[in-house]
Amino acid sequence: MSEALPLSGFRVGVTAARKVDEQIVLLERRGAAVEWAPALSLDPNQIDDGQLRASTEEVLGRPVDMFLATTGIGMKSWFSAAERWGLLPDLLTALGSAEILARGPKSVGALRRQGLRELWAPESECFEDVLEHLRGRDLTGLRIVVQEHGQSLSMVAHALRRQGADVTTVTVYRVEAASDLEPMFALIDLVADRSLDAVTFTSAPAVAALMDAAGPTGRREELVGAFQADVVASCVGPVTAAAFEMWGVPTIYPERSRLTAMVKQLEVELPSRRSGLTLELVGGHQLLLHGDDVLLDGHEVRLSPAPAAVLHALVANPGNVVARPALLAMLPSGTAGSEHAVEMAVARLRAALGTRTVQTVVKRGYRLAVAP
């Protein structure tokens, strides 16, 4: 008798438009039943050639003090377009004289292929950490060029201007929602009805497109509730996961932002949720969750609803930071709607499990202290 595949019996939604065949094959080879609903347009990232050239000429018009690169595909597309126009040498000279900050390894790779070197890049690949790196610096009078990543970074530009910077944003491409929304509407119904075990996301715009599509269906609240309780929101990396924070949806994502790593994580996550989850915590403690039952080192732990909700959110992201707004959204109705309620729930959870089991990450949130 052949051994069961790790995702046999599980139903997984896929929202990707790019590299979707590869992802579906990875899931189906592991036994999953796949429901595909592209959240974004199947066309390549859409570039407005005239607008991009005008933005490039604006960049070249004055010296650049700092450059923020956000995506590899954006940088490659910009360099390719500049080469067609005969402006690539000038663009590389302008950016090469600036302090370059890159959001992640793909943008770093695109820069280095053109002989440009970043001064700093965050380990997290989160743009928020790029801004955190710049907070407290006097940016008065500095000209900063920001490469947008498919969605508007106008709020980022506004934040930098508040620090005194002269900001120019360059829109290399725009990501559009899928032209046919029927598959997405069907996926929303499946999630809201708890008919899927997980849904995968490979970009932040896909998350935004899903939530936008859920509005007209009247099931957005049900969709969010399903993700908070029963359906796993599986993201390729922290940037995509961050798009769920404003909705209070807990997510999982692998250490390396790769399709294969995301699927392998689901191999472990989904069976563990069905059979009960065991985690090794710092200090040699073992935490077991099975439904509503919580055991610490074999002893039952009774939790009131608020700390129990916080625990389930942290367990869904073991070792990863869960923001306070996300935890607040998980608290049961009737709980005071402020971050103080989160602090009280965390305090009660620490009292039940031990003070070292839940770690505070300053200005970001909390994480479950799992053993390395």
Distance between the termini: 36 Å
The level 1 CATH classification of the largest domain is Alpha Beta
Q: Roughly what percent helix?
A: 40-55%
Q: Strand content of the residues, in percent?
A: 15-25%
Please tell me the overall pLDDT: 89
Per DSSP E runs of 2 or more residues, the count of β-strands stands at: 16
CATH topology of the largest domain: Rossmann fold
- Continuous helix count: 15
| CATH architecture name of the largest domain | 3-Layer(aba) Sandwich
- Sequence stretches where pLDDT stays below 50 over 5 or more residues: none
Based on Cα principal axes, name the global outline: globular
Overall description:
This protein has three domains: 11-43 and 177-272, Rossmann fold; 49-170, Rossmann fold, CATH 3.40.50.10090; 276-368, Winged helix-like DNA-binding domain superfamily/Winged helix DNA-binding domain (Arc Repressor Mutant, subunit A). Helix 3 (72-84) packs parallel to helix 5 and helix 13 packs across helix 14. The model has no long low-confidence stretch (mean pLDDT 89). The chain contains 15 helices and 16 strands. It is of the alpha/beta class. The strands form four sheets. A five-stranded parallel sheet has the order 2-1-7-8-9, with helices on both faces. Strands 4-3-5-6 form a four-stranded parallel sheet, sandwiched between helices. 43% of the residues lie in helices and 16% in strands.
